[in-house]
Amino acid sequence: MFPILSPYTKAISHLFSGREPTPECHECGAPLDTALHTLVECATWGPQRSQMEKVVGPVRSLENMVKAMLSSKRYWSEVASFCESVMTQKEARKSKQLSIDTKRMRLKFESVPLTEFD
Ligand SMILES: [Zn+2]
Question: Looking at residue 14, what is its pLDDT?
Fold first, then answer.
C-alpha cells in the first residue's frame, strides 16, 4: 500500500519509470497521475472513495488519509480496502492494455511478408 500513499513527487515519478509509458491518468486523462490524484481527485474512483468516506469521513489530503488510518483499526481497514480496490482495477486495466498491445504487435508482425526476413 506504500506506493499509493507516498506524498513525494519523486517517488511517484519513480513508480512510472519503466512501468507506465506516460505519467497521465489513464482513467480520466489528467496530466499527472499521482497518489493525491488517485486518492482524492480522480472522478473514476469516486464511487469507491465515497464508500470509504462514509466510514472515515471526508478525505481531502494524503495527510488526512494517513491520520484516519492511524486513528482506528476500522478506518485502517476501510482505507486499505479502498486502496486495494483501486490498485487492483488499475493493474487489471494495465494487464488488459498489455494484452491488446501484444495482439496488435502480433497482427502487425504477421502482416509482414516472409520475404522481408530473407
Ligand atoms: Zn484520473
Answer: 45
pLDDT of residue 3: 54
Are 65 and 53 within 8 A, CB to CB?
A: no
CA distance 100 to 114: 24
pLDDT given for residue 76 in this prediction: 94
**Ligand 1 centroid from CA 6, angstroms:** 17
Q: How far is the CA of 94 from the centre of ligand 1 (A)?
A: 14
How many angstroms does the Cα of residue 77 sit away from the middle of ligand 1?
Answer: 23
**Which cell numbers hold the place of 106?**
502480433
**Residues 13-49 pLDDT 10s:** 444 444 566 788 888 999 988 888 988 999 999 999 9
Q: How far is CA 56 from CA 36, 44, 47, 75, 103, in A?
A: 17, 19, 14, 6, 43
